[in-house]
Amino acid sequence: MIDEPIYPQANTVEDFERTLAAVRRRIADACHRVGRDSVEVRLLPVSKTVDEGRIRLAFAAGCRWLGENKVQEAHRKWKAMTDLQDLRWSVIGHLQANKVKLVARFADEFQALDSLHVAEMLDRRLQAEGRALDVFVQVNTSGEATKYGLHPNDVQAFIWQLPAFNSLRVRGLMTLARLSPEAERVRQCFVLLHNLRNRLRQEAPSCVSMDELSMGMSSDFEIAIEEGATVVRIGQAIFGARALPDSYYWPTQKTEPEFPK
After folding, report:
1. Which of 71-77's residues contact partners 24+ apart within 8 Å by CB, and which partners?
2. Could you tell me the CATH number of the domain that includes residue 102?
3. What is the value of pTM for the model shown?
């Protein structure tokens, strides 16, 4: 079973130093269990709903990357904190076409690419801005209709078309695991993504990197690390419990039925 602890809110620099240290210890322990080096795993703190004041405290405690789901919220925070020159922003939520221009303006990374239309629009906007952007291709590994991302069978054809977009630097794959108290059902999602990445990297175009696997959040990141995650997206274990359910941050859509076993 996956335990769901109640995370206390971090409100001081000392609080953030403590929560960051605790998460890093858990990352190191998970790596040790499977013979990995913890330097292989990047911690991406997720600051959705966190106000500017608390983000500045987290920055003072050592946060240099922040992940955000909602583009307008992220853009507003970026504008308010341009004085923090070392702070980098990763957009990790579904991107609507009408928000592409904002992402092209400020984001250092986009982890939820699953549309050629969005890729084309991003590339055009990035060229106008004179920028490039690291991107991860999002894969729906759970088969749940509430999650975005490509069906695993469609990922290869999608990735093979991305070299046409010169401003997009493909770094790897991203997924959201099944929300389940059963650890093995969650693990299956991470195993699927890892195996898919290994298969694709053998034949990927030379300009496409398949080195990164972004998978794992506060409730399941240790399982993700055991299955090869190189980026873990941690919000509540660092900042504290959120008032709203996950469904608010990961909007629903209609997709194909659950993948056959």
Report:
1. 71/95, 71/96, 71/99, 71/102, 71/103, 72/99, 72/102, 73/48, 73/49, 74/106, 74/107, 75/102, 75/105, 75/106, 77/47, 77/52
2. 3.20.20.10
3. 0.91
